[in-house]
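Here is the promised in-class demo. Please do not try to memorize the tokens; focus on the logic of going from shape to residues.
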């Protein structure tokens, strides 16, 4: 069941940002341009809420950094 949460989070991240999550082979946070970092943060907040969490930091478990 937990694997489904990872799969959902990574698929949703790609929809929201247009690129793969770091845990799925996408660029790390350090590799993103400033405008992409904002998009990354907003996507992580959205996904965190959708998964029932309040903190953006929890998404590192599902998406990587």
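The designed amino acids, position by position:
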């Amino acid at each position: 069941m937990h694997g489904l949460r990872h799969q959902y989070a990574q698929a949703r991240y790609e929809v929201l940002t247009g690129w793969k999550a770091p845990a799925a082979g996408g660029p790390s946070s350090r590799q993103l341009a400033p405008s992409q970092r904002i998009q990354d943060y907003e996507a992580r907040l959205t996904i965190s809420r959708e998964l029932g969490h309040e903190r953006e930091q929890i998404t590192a478990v599902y998406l990587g950094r």
